Amino acid sequence: MNAIQRRVIRASSGDTVAAQPFTPPGTHFGAVLLNAELEPISRRGGEVDLPAPEVETHIQSRFADQVFTSGQELTFEFQGLNYLLRVSTLTVVVPGGEQQTVPRAMLSLATSCVFETRKGSGIKIVGQKSIMTSQLFKQREVSFEKLGIGGLDSQFREMFRRAFESRRLPPSVVERLGIKHRKGILLYGPPGTGKTLIARQLGMMLNGKEPKVVNGPEVLNKYVGASEENIRNLFKDAEEDYLKNGDDSELHVIIFDEIDAICKSRGSVRDGSGVHDTIVNQLLTKIDGVNALNNILVIGMTNRLELLDEALLREGRLDVHMEIGLPDENGRLQILKIHTRNMSEHGFLAGDVDLAELAHRTQNYSGAELEGLVRSATSFALDRETDMADLSKPVVEENIRVTRADFLRALDE
Ligand code: ADP
């Protein structure tokens, strides 16, 4: 079996697998695959440009000797980018001209299949979660800017290395290496530095959809036992999924914003009720339970690391700790670029605005504060176009210009 086939059946070299003879119904060796159509890979709901014709040509030569099945994943590198695509439907034309959808079991068949693509219908290749991982790490800067996260590339990469490398391996390799997947990470640092952005992005990358974000204080409920129940409920979907599907269940990412609200040091909340301590215990119990399951990743976030119960941070719990600090000058420049990108593309940003100068002048600003600075500068620009004596007068779009002076005023505000 080649790497792709092993991947599909989740086996690694050295594994023992069962094989059965199989005759594909009505198909012949040398079936012609017609009409491969590439869909743009979708990332975060938006579209990523795929150089479709070149990729198609590349796929033709790269996978010429393979039989595909619907649901199969293909990995390949093209022009420095790693792609991981999933075949969603596949049609072959057998000699005689009849079209057939390829059955899943054909995968196990080593035969040759001439891959011919034309515009129209045929193979549909749609993006899957891991595309984003591999693309992101090949093309970090570009992707990060596109995603709207500035100045956190190196932190992101470090976090990936410490917390996620193992998840790219097949289960049997993880076992043989004798390592365990990390179950939790803690992001800490000043407010407004992009912790939530990065956690959401991770969630998206890991399972291709918006992750569940829970706000610490929202979990708390004044009724006895209700907070604990809220915590139990957060883990319920993942637990049920695991019971049903075992290691095949999807990865559930649970993000706790302001985790300090529910996990302050036990004994530190002296309201005489001891309720807080039971809540912490409940959370720890649930996170420990995650070790038995294999499908949950907990990401906690806090601006107040010192408040957290130390037990939460121990090995096997949220044991990867990443500080997300204030951006440096280059980071600030990236963030300013992100938040002025739209206005710049649409001609609203005046030529005298020098983002590098602003990055230099905004020491100790967080990402959120830089975003606020842009908002404030924009409000000064709009104010110029507003006649308080006659608010019914429409704003002339062409006149809107956010200038250097607007930014300097915003800096003073
Ligand atoms: P935190 O979770 O660290 O308190 P957030 O991730 O919620 O901060 O950031 C709040 C907002 O500030 C974001 O929605 C974004 O608009 C802006 N922001 C913060 N950090 C960055 C960053 N590194 N790059 C781009 N925008 C940022």
Automatic annotation (TrEMBL):
It catalyses: ATP + H2O = ADP + phosphate + H(+). One of its GO terms (molecular function) is ATP binding. It is an enzyme of class 3 (hydrolase). GO terms for cellular component: Golgi stack. Keywords: ATP-binding, Cytoplasm, ER-Golgi transport, Hydrolase, Magnesium, Metal-binding, Nucleotide-binding, Protein transport, Transport. The keyword Cell cycle does not apply. One of its GO terms (biological process) is intra-Golgi vesicle-mediated transport. Its cofactor is Mg(2+). Its EC number is 3.6.4.6. Belongs to the AAA ATPase family. This is Vesicle-fusing ATPase.
